[in-house]
Amino acid sequence: MANVDRLNRQVLNAYWIVAAIVFVVQIAYSLAEEGSDPDIRIGSVLVRSLLVVIVAGLGEILYASFRRYGRQVVIGISFTMAYLNYLNLGLYTENTPGILLIFPMFVPLIYFDRRLLDLFGALNIAFYAVFYFAIERTIYDRNIEDFVLRISMLACSLLLGRVVLSRAIEIGRQVEQLTKTQQDLIVDKAISQRLLKTDSLTQLYNHQTFYEYLEDLVEQCKRNGLNVQVAVLDIDNFKKINDTYGHMIGDLVLKEVSIRVGMAISPNDFAARYGGEEFAIIFTEKTPEEAAKYAERIRSGVEQANYSYMGNHPVTVSIGLSAYEPEDTAETMFGRADAALYRAKRTGKNRVVGYDADQDALSPK
């Protein structure tokens, strides 16, 4: 709607420019004319120009009052001004520029509106026929050849306008289809990339994406001193849950835990399903103490969740934490968090444990 209003405004502005040009042309013709009082000629020009200004001003009022019919108002005023300017210039020359009558027929092309083009094109041809026999032939004694030429010109212009408009509409549809195809490809690509990076069950990132992101962050830690903590989370006694309630219930538990993880971490953190019942989380821009608080929030959220589909049997998680240290790699950093997780399991489960070099061995669970 805003684009159409802007377009209408531009056409209305063009009316004023055309009115100014015709005024200048009339003054030039008037000054060059001989045999009559210059003051009278100038006065006549001013009167006719005032009429054009009134029509243009009326267009502004109608457009402001009937914005819903803006296109019809703009084309209608264009039609009226074309004939006024045609008549004004016709006072000075026998070969009045016929392009003035074609102009309102091409305004509908701006809107890509075939119905308006046909309506005002047919109206223009019919009106010119009346105009010729009522004014041009009667008052100015224009010959019939001029009428045939003008009518032919208007008819050809209408046909040409229809061809141009049809082609423009066809190109517009092709561009629209191409744009839609490109959008579909972009969406498909985005979906494909997301599928490659995420776990289908939990919708968290997968093992590979986790390591890629952790490697990038470790490099940033080395260059910029970024604070990064890694947490490894494991669902306690998950095999027993699967054996007792079945794998379908086990999948529901995995989904619930992933939801609790997503709810607890901050927007700058990164959570992934590492494999099986194990999850990995990267905390960024946090001290070890802050990361421990977030990990505790996850542990508490999982424990307090409602597992009605398995008779409210409690579900808990154990979490191991590790902070970045100089000369770390993604593997060593994850290995320390994994060792801390092993100690959390060994010392009673359902707890958050930070890596301790004196107590944790870098070995798999």
Account of the protein in words:
The protein has about 375 residues and is of the alpha+beta class. It has two domains: about 1-180, no CATH class; about 205-355, Reverse transcriptase/Diguanylate cyclase domain (Alpha-Beta Plaits). The chain has helices at about 1-30, 40-65, 70-90, 100-110, 115-140, 145-195, 205-225, 240-245, 245-265, 290-305, 330-345, and strands at about 230-235, 270-275, 280-285, 315-325, 350-355. The chain has a five-stranded mixed sheet with strand order 2-3-1-4-5, with helices on both faces. A hairpin with a 2-residue loop joins β2 and β3. α2 (about 40-65) runs antiparallel to α3 (about 70-90), α5 (about 115-140) packs antiparallel against α6 (about 145-195) and α8 packs across α9 (about 245-265). The longest helix has about 55 residues, at about 145-195.
Give the SSE map.
Layout: H1 2-32, H2 38-65, H3 70-90, H4 99-110, H5 114-139, H6 144-197, H7 207-224, E1 228-235, H8 238-245, H9 247-264, E2 270-275, E3 278-284, H10 288-304, E4 317-323, H11 330-346, E5 352-354
Parallel strand pairs: 4-5
Antiparallel strand pairs: 1-3, 1-4, 2-3
